[in-house]
Amino acid sequence: MESEFLRFLILEDHPEVAQNNGLFLQQLDPCAIFTIAPTHSEALERLTLDKYDLIIVDLLFGTPTGQQSAQASLELLQQVFQDYPTQNILIYTSEYDYLKPLTQAIGRHQGGFVVVSKLERRKAFLDGAKHALDGKLEIPRELRHHIELNQREMEVLLLLCQESLTDKAIAEPMNLSLKTVQNCVQRLKTKLDVEYLDENHTSTRVALCMEAIRCKIITL
């Protein structure tokens, strides 16, 4: 991180929930600063003024009719994908099906993107924040269909499968850090849905290549 402390932007229309989430996030960094944006327009304005290590987005917001809607949050995410392609994002919702129209954009996004269900324990929220800060991609399996690989992921996949290179050996010719390559491999496992395999029986790296071949993403 460039700054000495973490900076969080929390998009949430319930003040008490937002405040509790901010205090909970300070477990990652007691000196962390969190800013609460109660509206989507204010969140976008904040992003133009400051740099945040992570933004936390509640998908559903109340409407004047008393209903809950995800439309404004989805529009905000599209704007963030366009203007801040490396921004780390944590989605906190129990209704992640609303994200299905954005799966292609999620796949192309370069920053961390993690979806955590509100039905999970609070520890899952904190773990999700950590993983998003690390640049990881963690989304429900229902959102992974037809998700695309970006150019860097394709290059890493080819070196991993066709050349059988280690992460370190991949990093050198691509002029990337080892952590970047490790994150890339993790994202590949998520996108190709092989991260849940039992490595005692099947290597996930082998399964990754087998799935890439099955899906005709690569040929050997």
Automatic annotation (TrEMBL):
Q: Name the UniProt key words of this record, in alphabetical order.
A: DNA-binding, Phosphoprotein
Question: Which InterPro entries does this UniProt record tie to the protein?
Answer: CheY-like_superfamily, Sig_transdc_resp-reg_C-effctor, Sig_transdc_resp-reg_receiver, Tscrpt_reg_LuxR_C, WalR-like, WH-like_DNA-bd_sf
* Ranges of residues in domain Response regulatory: 7-133
Q: Which residues form a coiled coil?
A: none
Pfam families in alphabetical order = GerE (PF00196)
**Molecular function GO terms recorded:** DNA binding
Checking Gene3D superfamilies in the record gives: 3.40.50.2300, Winged helix-like DNA-binding domain superfamily/Winged helix DNA-binding domain
Q: Which residues carry this modification: 4-aspartylphosphate?
A: 58
Task: Give the UniProt record's GO annotations in the biological process aspect.
Answer: phosphorelay signal transduction system; regulation of DNA-templated transcription
The name this protein goes by in its record: Two component transcriptional regulator, LuxR family
